[in-house]
Write a structure and sequence with these properties.
Blueprint (H helix, E strand, L loop, with lengths): L3 E2 L15 E6 L3 H11 L5 E6 L2 H10 L1 E5 L2 E5 L2 E3 L10 E4 L6 H5 L11 E4 L29 H5 L5 E14 L2 E13 L7 H11 L4 E5 L2 H12 L2 H8 L3 H6 L1 H21 L7 H9 L7 H7 L6 H15 L4 H17 L3 H11 L14
Pathway: Cofactor biosynthesis; (R)-pantothenate biosynthesis; (R)-pantoate from 3-methyl-2-oxobutanoate: step 2/2
Catalytic activity: (R)-pantoate + NADP(+) = 2-dehydropantoate + NADPH + H(+)
EC number: 1.1.1.169
């Protein structure tokens, strides 16, 4: 996707006047924990902190973050807090949360963000800033599904955001313990200025951790490219419990995935963001990853809320804006929502309650809010 720019080997200005760059990882799930560990081991001086809660907060505060990679287990100490106000303004904030938490996080993240702070979104799906900057700066497109009243963009200004796509597979083995399965590549881009100094600075910092960093001058296209996978492999895995290889070895499922990807491509074309890759090429690359369990299936098995609105909502917003028909995406979303309801721990109680009140009132399903 897009042109790939060289990554400099030294920093240029982040943390100027101080000994270390202040970096906070907001969210210590699988990817957030892995990135926090990598940053704590960086060759450049970095003051690494993290925001977490519950058992993860307690575990990391007591024992640090441990990463299992093949047969190796290594631990890094990271200062962690549940209160952003205790950490103060940062040079960089890596936002590694689930889309389901975005609105809540936006209400608490403000103490970390100063006028020069860079917020690097490392989330799946289309981010809140996507249609506010770069090619959309003059005519922003609202995304009410993920930022209903614009409060997220007010708290986390799109002009201070970078986009980062993490092409790695990780899973949480326990509180503060992450398993790294495969992949070490991240794609970084500045949606406001593709050739900015700030994106090169962040790339340099991330490269010092041992990550394979690629700087792209078309981060919007990179996001839509990854969305091809987000909208297919994850939802299909939840519906079928099939790993990625099994999905793509079934020609009927492969054909369905291609139809979903074609609809995303048409939305991109209407927005003036043509994707240089073809769906079949992406499917071939995905098949080579092997028996990967998508994070959405991991969340489903763990009983966690699925990122339904985060994945499908912005696509729906942009499809409506561009008047693009999306019957395959809509069908997939509907099936996934029904499956999510059926698998919900409260589904049996809800069914019982519905029977008891049948005839006296109707139960209204509010699809726009997820499960």
């Amino acid at each position: 996707m897009g042109n790939r720019l060289p990554v400099p080997q030294s920093q240029m200005g982040l943390g100027k006047g101080r000994n270390a760059v202040k970096v906070c990882i907001y969210g210590l799930g699988a990817i957030g924990g892995w990135l926090a560990y990598k940053l704590a081991k960086a060759k450049l001086p970095v003051d690494v902190t993290a925001i977490a809660r519950g058992r993860i907060l307690e575990a990391v505060a007591d024992s640090g973050i441990s990463v299992q990679d093949d047969d190796r287990l290594s631990t890094a100490n990271v200062k962690v807090s549940g209160d952003p106000a205790l950490l103060g303004e940062q040079d960089i904030v890596l936002l590694t949360i689930k889309g389901t938490a975005l609105l809540d996080v936006s209400e608490h993240i403000q103490p970390l963000i100063g006028p020069h702070t860079l917020v690097v979104s490392c989330m799946n799906g289309i981010p809140w800033w996507f249609s506010q900057v770069g090619p959309f700066a003059q005519n922003p497109i609202p995304l009410p599904s993920i930022d209903p009243d614009g409060s997220v963009a007010k708290t986390i200004p799109p002009s201070q955001c970078l986009g980062m796509l993490v092409h790695a597979s990780c899973s949480v083995l326990g509180a503060g313990l992450v398993r790294h399965h495969a992949g070490n590549r991240v794609v970084l881009g500045d949606p406001s200025d593709a050739h900015s100094v700030r994106v090169q600075e962040v790339a340099s910092l991330l490269s010092s951790t041992g990550l394979d960093v690629v700087v792209s001058d078309e981060v919007h296209a990179e996001i839509l490219y990854k969305l091809w996978g987000n909208l297919t492999s994850g939802p299909i895995a939840v519906l079928t419990e099939a790993t990625l290889d099994r999905q793509l070895d079934c020609q009927l499922v492969r054909n369905f995935s291609r139809q979903v990807m074609d609809e995303v491509s048409e939305i991109a074309r209407q927005l003036g963001i043509p994707l240089s890759s073809l769906p079949e090429e992406k499917l071939r690359i995905s098949r080579r990853l092997g028996a990967i369990t998508p994070s959405m299936l991991q969340d489903s098995k763990a009983g966690k809320p699925l990122e339904l609105e985060a994945f499908f909502g912005p696509v729906r917003d942009l499809a409506r804006f561009t008047s693009t028909a999306t019957p395959f995406i809509d069908a997939l979303e509907g099936l996934l929502r029904l499956t999510s309801r059926a698998n919900s721990p409260s589904s049996s109680n809800a069914g019982k309650a519905a029977k008891e009140t049948r005839g006296s009132r109707r139960v209204k399903e509010k699809y726009s809010h997820g499960i």
